Amino acid sequence: MPKFVKSSLVDQIFDYLQSEILKGTWAPGEKLPSETELAASLDVSRMSLRSAIQRCCAMGLTETRVGEGTFVRDFNLRSYFTELYRLKLLGRNPNEINDMRAILQLGSVRLAMTDSISQEKIGKLEELFHQMEAAADRGDLPKFHELDSDFHRLICSLGNNELLFLIYDAIAELTDDVMHHNVEKSVAAFQGFSRIMEHHKELVESIKTCDMDRFTKAIMGSRERSISYYPNL
User: Which residues share a beta bridge with 62?
Assistant: First the structure.
């Protein structure tokens, strides 16, 4: 087992635990040794070890269950960004999140239009749009939010770029949270869903006709409206 110096001891323990988890010494779902056992094997205090484990939990690497112990989580980028968002270390400015979402959608659609977009995906996009219309007509806001999230996820998959989609998926909790607020503010400002549905129709039609300028105009118009929803930042 490694020996640790006193300076930045918690950092060194955290680095060790992180390294062991990422290389698979403890598999996802597996329980870590008890604090007493692990502290003894590393020759560190339980207090220092506990601080390092708390950091692992904050980063989404592990989770501590009361009365059971600490377990390795199935780590992914989404859990990482979600924890940072939950701890208010990331995404405190809604306009920055709106900008990030806009950039990822513009990039994905630009890539898609360079090649061709399958009729199957266009059909799925149209179907989601019609389902959103139905939810809007019913005034079913929770269902509308769910469909809206699926709609924009599909847009970000059009470019067939796994890394781009992975980034969008990783920040899904940030973007979904802000999108929900955007929708609610738009419904209040325009007294209904009409403006939102016009925007989504423009996205669908511009993708169907491979009109990048029209798509860009729709995305940037939405961005400008979103900025007005958070004027005091």
Answer: 72
Tokens of 79: 């859990």
Residues 6+ apart with CB under 8 A from 152: 101, 105, 175, 179
Do both 118 and 209 map to the same domain? yes
| Average pLDDT over every residue of 56-84 | 80
- Are 160 and 111 within 8 A, CB to CB? yes
pTM summary value: 0.67
Tell me, yes or no, whether 1 lies in a domain: no
Same domain, 71 and 86: no
Number of domains in the chain: 2
Query: In which domain, by residue range, is 69 found?
Result: 9-75
Output the average pLDDT for the chain.
88
Sign, CA torsion 184/186/190/195: negative
Computed from CA positions of residues 111, 175, 169, 137, in that sequence, does the dihedral angle turn out positive or negative? negative
pLDDT in tens, 119-142: 999 999 999 999 999 999 999 999
Query: What pLDDT is attached to residue 197?
Result: 96
Rounded to whole angstroms, how far apart are CA atoms 32 and 177?
Answer: 33
| Spatial distance between the Cα atoms of 49 and 70, rounded to a whole number of angstroms | 12
